[in-house]
Amino acid sequence: MNDAANAAHIGAGRPAEDVLADMESMRSRDVRWRDGRAFTLAYNAGPEVVALAEEAYRRFSGENALNTDAFPSLRRMQNEVVSRALSWAGGDADSAGFMTSGGTESLILCVRAAMKRAEREGRTLNRPNVVLPTTAHAALEKAADYFGVQNRRIPVGPDWRADVNAMLGAIDDQTVLVVASAPQYPQGVVDDVTPLAARAAELRINCHVDACMGGVTLAYLGMLGEPVPAWNFRVEGVTSVSIDLHKYGYAAKGAGVLLHRNKFLRADQTFITDNWLGGTYGSSGILGTKSGGPIAAAWAVMHHLGDDGYMRLTRTARDTALAIAAHIDAHPALVLRAQPDT
Hints:
Layout: H1 3-8, H2 16-26, H3 47-60, H4 72-88, E1 96-100, H5 103-120, E2 129-133, H6 139-147, E3 150-154, H7 164-170, E4 175-181, H8 193-203, E5 206-210, H9 215-223, E6 240-244, E7 256-260, H10 263-267, E8 271-273, E9 281-283, H11 293-330
Parallel strand pairs: 2-3, 2-4, 4-5, 5-6
Antiparallel strand pairs: 1-7, 6-7, 8-9
Helix pairs in contact: 3-11, 4-11, 5-6, 9-11
């Protein structure tokens, strides 16, 4: 009998220890991420941080973040996580945000928010489009597929950054969103956000910075005195920023934030209806029922590491990236395509 057939015949059940033993056997061939062998798939700040995240996740996994009136602990933790992330992203007293399940959900929601803003402001859209560089994350293709938006992907320049002039030339009266990355994934460089955001502001359209990979690192590199490209809400015209907490924030999987310049823009992310017989239903993101585990784990890790811990981990990550880049640059058979910004 194959594995699928076995799974379909669970019979009367089995002792918990047998079930757990089977699960351990299943993952015997998985990548050993705890040993640092899962580049880009898992981010390990050491056994103490991992254990804390897992324990916090376990304690709050059954709580449902769909209704934080019922679970005020989750409301407080989410608010504090978002507040800390806003400080990294240069937010002010008007800025706001929500936690998401990670970068993909954040990017899908930033496209939805751009569409809702255009609708709210009375724009006539026949074929809405998003202007973005070819290096912008693939989740934006998922968003385009979901919402029927045209993605105008513009080739990058020789430095692998967004070709600003080409992107500006691609914007028209159907453009709802301009996207930049901090950094982009393939080469690790930060796009020139300032002119893109300035043009978006002139046209009253959204400008999103995808800092899912670099938001935490860029914030702490700045605190360490390193030169950091302009990337966040300190750039006039940036309307939203996404940061993944389960990357270099070292939280458990399923934790990101989508941050907005103000609460009006944040409202465009949300959904609410009473068009059924079950009362008012609202959610801040794609998910309805949402485990409190990722929220609790992110909160716990943030408070455990503090600024000192994040600066130490950021310094280590940056030094490692530069060492790898130097090795590639010195190798006669390899070519360094770009010096990483994070």
